[in-house]
Amino acid sequence: MSPQKMSMGKAINSGLRASMDKNPKVLVMGEDVGRLGGVFRVTDGLQKDFGEGRVLDTPLAESGIVGTAVGLTYRGFWPVVEIQFDGFVYPAYDQIVSQVARLHFRSSGAVKMPMVIRIPFGGGIGAVEHHSDSPEAQFALTAGLKVVSCSNPHDAYWMIQQAIESDDPVVFMEPKRRYWETGEVDLESTSMPLLASQVVRPGADATLIAYGPMVETCRQAAEAALADGLDLEVIDLRTLSPLDLAPVFESVRRTGHAVVVHEAQRTLGLGAELAARITEECFHSLEAPVQRVTGYDMPYPPSRVEDDFLPGLDRIIDAVEHARSIGAV
User: Fold this and answer.
1) Burial level of 295, CB count in 10 A (0-12/13-18/19+)?
2) Which residues contact 252 (CB under 8 A, 6 or more apart)?
3) 262 is annotated as an active-site residue
């Protein structure tokens, strides 16, 4: 079967369908996921095809949704929970951190927690407050959780299935601004395990490290930088916890420059941990300090000014040029 072209939202929908076909214990639950098909229509048609017993419309109560899913895992089900928007996850934070992340450890491995928590995250869609947060670091620092983020339709299709098949809880971060972007999806095989990063564009002059919505932004920045004579490598982390940094270290040792890009606030974001790890492992290869291009240390702003908050091509290229200018001194 030749690859099929589809949007990221459709790819996740197809991946959910494949998992539900394969395992009758897989359930999808969340606010408006059934009859409406989700606010982004990612679960469109699932309730019609699999029934109300497997695609459950829940009350507007995130703590209750996740808490119910914990109970379902005890009964042998494999729940896929949708948090409607990133900023709505906080009522469920206690359940996720205190129960979901700890039960496997607390029970000395006797209790498995095969749960996926889907969270559309990030900005760029002109939304109101509480609809454009980037809370990934809060989950990445929580022991007991796996945290992953897809950046393209092919990965979305396969990663959601791999996450569902995991015995450990997975926080699945979906870049909502990329839901409608299309790409080829190989429905027969994936070359990547779930917890692996990937070089998506080779380059020689500097390494751009990103995940989720910023991977495509970095790819565009790399193409734009060619006009300035810069050949930039782009790495898609894909997994945020645990981090797979072997491809990152190999790249930085070649290029001598590293720039980490994410939408979340700068202080204590994923970029801080990445900068520390890269410095520890690649210190003698670095020609300049690791640069970070991020959101600012403030609540997500009104949509009319979000373009000034989000990392863009100019800020990314400026960070590369700044790093190279330091190295040239």
Assistant:
1) buried
2) 207, 258, 278, 282, 285, 286
3) no
Give the pLDDT confidence of 27-51 residue by residue, as tens digits: 999 999 999 999 999 999 999 999 9
Catalytic residue, from 104, 131, 154, 262: name it: 131
Instruction: Report which of 129, 96, 147 is spatially closest to residue 273, judged by C-alpha positions.
Output: 147
Q: Give the angle 269-272-278 at the CA atoms, nearest 5°.
A: 140
Q: 184 vs 1, 86, 96, 295, CA distance in Å?
A: 12, 27, 34, 30
147 Cβ partners below 8 Å, 6+ apart? 136, 139, 140, 170, 171, 173, 239, 240, 241
Percentage of residues of the chain with pLDDT beyond 70: 99
The length of the chain is 329
| Burial (CB count <10 Å: 0-12, 13-18, 19+), residue 281 | middle
The predicted structure's pLDDT at residue 2: 77
